[in-house]
Here is the input.
Amino acid sequence: MYLIDGQSPQSGGISLRAYPQGHILNAIFQTHDLVDGRLALSEVMFREFDSEIEFLMKELRKHRLAKQGWTIDREFRGNDTFQAMVGGGEGQYRIDIAAGTLLVTLSAAIELCALEEDSATAGLSNQYRPGENSIRCLFPGVQEPDEAGFDALGLALDACLLLYFHELAHAIHGHCDYRPNNDDEARALESDADFNAGTMFGVWVWHLPATYRKPKLEEDMYRRLIRASYLLGTLLKAVSARSTEYHHPTNRVRTFLAGGVFAFDSLGKSTKFDDVKAGDDYWEQKIILHCASIKDALGRSTLKAFQGTEIDIEEDRRQMEEITAHVLNRLKDGPLMHFKLKI
Ligand SMILES: [Zn+2]
Here is the structure.
């Protein structure tokens, strides 16, 4: 079975044998006129993301998949929408990432980073004409690739990694082999994929091949996971026709981070709490601390319509705690147990 996150496909687009560059990018993004600095920046995004995933997948195959006779392949697809999917069954899966996913994420990251307080890229805060937004219109104001800044590139790469890990989690935890019976079950699978994506992020991002991408301090890691979760949650809610099956971005951050904390604890990279409530409060404060600036930026951005109201967010949180969590426990103790990758 296929699980799709993001825009539903009009057409999946051709399968690409390698990450797209140059004229292939132009062919995929025909209506975006990617030239000069904008094309160069797009090429960087694909090159960096591909090298990170290639490195991590090699390790995963060697240490986890091969032993169980599992394969998980991956492909880029030549379409300009924000969409990731995973399909297959019984230990043989493939993750497809539409090319648009990377550039839409980069575009939104550039806009949000430019709109943050004291931004070094504030010059890019006003790239859009009325009615345009950073999902449909890819960084129109960028002239040189460096102009977008390392913050935005790093945030976009982190959010794309997290999405890729989310798809990987769908495969590894048996979701592709199970057909959900209703929206509650679909939300439970999404929530499980978020938690496990957070764990993968918390374990693997320390080991990324490029030095500039390795977190220097633990706090840097927490900040990156929280901001990437917030951006990814916002984009998925914004582009998805399955929007009702997703929890609100603010609440999804908690699930991604909970998965991350599970990893930090087992690696000895976080404060340990005997008291559950004290631990929850500690991490809640981290979310508030590291989300504040990007949340404010979202409120000033072309994507502000996707922010949601306090009432929506509270209601969504209640549903998450009262329904999704229980449905997920039932699935994990039941059908998913048979399908997931054995350790
Ligand atoms: Zn999903």
